[in-house]
Design brief:
By secondary structure, the protein is of the alpha+beta class. It has six helices and nine strands; from the N terminus they run ααβαβββαβββαββα. It folds into two domains: 46 residues; 105 residues, Immunoglobulin-like (Sandwich), CATH 2.60.40.420. The chain has a five-stranded mixed beta sheet. Strands 1-3-6-9 form a four-stranded mixed beta sheet, with no helix packed on it. The longest helix is centred in the N-terminal third of the chain and has 13 residues. It is globular and about 40 Å long. The structure holds 2-acetamido-2-deoxy-beta-D-glucopyranose (2 copies). The site of one 2-acetamido-2-deoxy-beta-D-glucopyranose has 2 residues, from loops. One 2-acetamido-2-deoxy-beta-D-glucopyranose (NAG) binds next to loops.
């Protein structure tokens, strides 16, 4: 028990973000409409959706969709609706992704026509303000293994804890 408490204290010191999970925000992409093709008359739908939002590391994107998919792509893939070289593909209809690194993340529908109609998303993920003086970079390795985009599933939180134990 004492060991556990000590461990918990250590984790709290090393990873203040875990001690204040309220900072992570879960965003449902497209709000109640979900992840869908906006149709040819509203191609700006997802650009407008991100316009007044700020994304930080450890925030969560939640995609809900039917007969569709979420592809994590690079900038070129985003602008050209290129579905041929995604770094990750999700088609379970209910995909939750942790934005585990700062930087630019690009998502498109696996249906190129949907993408061209505006079903594509770009988010710029900012570092956590409270992380300013902590020793970056994080020891977490992305499951996707991609150096361009690093988005992983919620279980990443568990990996962070495990990484902490290994230090
Ligand atoms: C999904 O696709 C199936 C088969 O093409 C179709 O019957 C169904 O209506 C579609 N559902 C939605 C929500 O588009
Ligand atoms: C998707 O997952 C969330 C959280 O696990 C749940 O609240 C929601 O009902 C799910 N949606 C669908 C369509 O299964």
């Amino acid at each position: 028990m004492n060991y556990f408490l000590t461990l918990l204290g250590t984790l709290t010191i090393m990873f203040p973000v875990l001690a204040s999970p309220v900072e992570a925000i879960s965003f449902k992409v497209g709000d109640s409409e979900g992840w869908h093709s906006p149709g040819i008359d509203k191609p700006e739908t997802f650009t407008l959706w991100t316009a007044r939002k700020t994304f930080h590391v450890m925030d969560i994107l939640w995609f809900e969709y039917k007969n569709d998919s979420v592809l994590v792509v690079d900038k070129w893939g985003y602008y050209h609706c290129d579905t041929t070289k995604p770094s990750s593909v999700f088609n379970d209809g209910n995909t939750t992704l942790v934005l585990d690194n700062p930087g630019k993340f690009y998502f498109i529908s696996g249906d190129p026509q949907h993408c061209e109609e505006g079903q594509r998303l770009f988010v710029n993920v900012l570092p956590l303000p409270s992380n300013a003086d902590s020793p970056a970079p994080s020891p977490v390795t992305s499951i996707s293994g991609s150096s361009v985009v690093s988005v992983t599933v919620v279980s990443m939180l568990v990996s962070i804890a495990i990484s902490a134990l290994a230090i």
